[in-house]
Design a protein that fits this description.
By secondary structure, the protein is α/β, with parallel strands linked by helices. The protein is 41% helix and 16% strand. The termini are far apart.
């Protein structure tokens, strides 16, 4: 029986990995090992490990997140992860390690797996986020990984361009979209009761994170966002920023804003069910989260994407890109409510939609492919000297 070790460090990532873990757990040929780390174990970010404990047996809980989102604090967290995951891999001895995305925690985790000769399975590689240090981390993880499952064909080609052999790179679509088909989403009344909110004629969901290559302007940029939202006459739901450098600054600013703005609400973590359920009933997802690019178009709703955090990602035509400027944001909000834009939303196609159940495809490949870390560099037939 192959032991598949899945690692999750954030609430968003857990939501994307959930059905893959269920598929592994329910397969007779595979054994699920689960390591929970990072933001999941932080009271400040909602102690989301409690939700995971209700669903899965957690093999290891590894605390790495220091009470600082500074560059020094994050660097020390990465060092702590390197030490702790060495001990965990030595004990669990997995056949494959599965990771998703591009966060800083992945570098020490994946490099440790390589040292232990454990092949890494990377989900959502090949993407581009030019406004983040995650851009570096993602491609570094790709080069340390053996199997790749991308969310679009363009990203598959990019992974191959990085020297990964095509027979180890599979386009299965975005994992977050699987939740739309698998979950019984809540009704508007259920959400109002569960979240203690009240929908209005116009409604916005805000998910905003730091641009880690533009840390010095975080307060200034997010203040522009809040000035625009202060003029919005409707309901606003905020979710907290993540643990990147500057995340605490954003969360403090949201807390102060919500105290003074009627029909504004803040949640540490909504979880996938409530988050996706909300997407049914809001008009706009505003901020700079990848969910605005990947999941929101499947609901045929508008995304107002602010700043450079998601630069380089494939986009649906429902995404409006603006700078962190009050007037630009307000103009984008007004545009969404025009008849012309609402008509366009009805015909939106999501470029991240491929397999209906990508987790099943991953499990199929995990059973077929034998653990291995030896790989050849795949050279494209291009004469770079012409």
């Amino acid at each position: 029986m192959k032991k598949i070790c899945v690692i999750t460090a954030t609430r968003a990532e857990y939501g994307l990995l959930y059905w893959l873990m269920k598929e592994i757990e329910n397969d007779n040929e595979l054994e699920l090992q689960l390591i929970v780390t990072g933001m999941h174990l932080s009271p400040e970010f909602g102690m989301t490990v409690k939700e995971i404990d209700k669903e899965f047996k957690v093999n290891k809980k590894i605390e790495i997140l220091l009470s600082s989102d500074s560059k020094i604090g994050i660097s020390k967290s990465m060092g702590l992860a390197q030490i702790s995951f060495a001990e965990a891999f030595d004990e669990l001895k997995p056949d494959f390690v599965v990771v998703l995305g591009d966060r800083f925690e992945l570098i020490p985790i994946v490099s440790t797996a390589v040292v232990f000769n454990i092949p890494v399975v990377h989900l959502h590689g090949g993407e581009a986020t030019e406004g983040l240090i995650d851009e570096y981390f993602r491609h570094a993880v790709t080069k340390m990984s053996y199997l790749h499952f991308t969310s679009t064909e363009e990203y598959r080609k990019r992974v191959i361009q990085m020297g990964e052999e095509p027979n180890r790179v599979f386009n299965v679509g975005a994992f977050g979209l699987e939740n739309i088909y698998r979950l019984n989403l809540l009704s508007k009344n259920e959400l109002e009761k569960e979240l203690k909110i009240k929908f209005k004629e116009k409604n916005i969901l805000v998910t905003y994170h730091p641009e880690t290559l533009n840390v010095e302007n975080i307060r200034k940029d997010f203040n522009e966002v809040l000035k625009a939202l202060n003029e919005f006459d409707g309901m606003i739901v905020f979710t907290k920023a993540n643990a990147d450098t500057g995340g605490r600054v954003i969360n403090e600013m949201i807390e102060n804003f919500v105290k003074t703005k009627q029909s504004a609400y803040l949640f540490d973590s909504l979880g996938q069910l409530k988050y996706l359920s909300l997407l049914q009933y809001v008009d706009i997802v505003l901020g700079n989260s990848s969910s605005g690019i990947i999941e929101v178009p499947s609901f045929k709703k508008a995304t107002i994407n602010i700043g450079n955090r998601q630069d380089g990602r494939v986009r649906a035509k429902s995404v409006i890109d603006v700078e962190a400027n009050k007037d630009d944001i307000l103009n984008a909000i007004r545009l969404v409510y025009t008849d012309e834009f609402q008509k366009k939303l009805k015909d939106i196609k999501n470029p991240y939609q491929k397999e209906k159940y990508p987790s099943k495809k991953v499990v199929e490949k995990l059973k077929q492919i034998q653990p291995n870390i030896i790989k050849n560099f795949y050279n494209l037939k291009v004469d770079l000297w012409k």
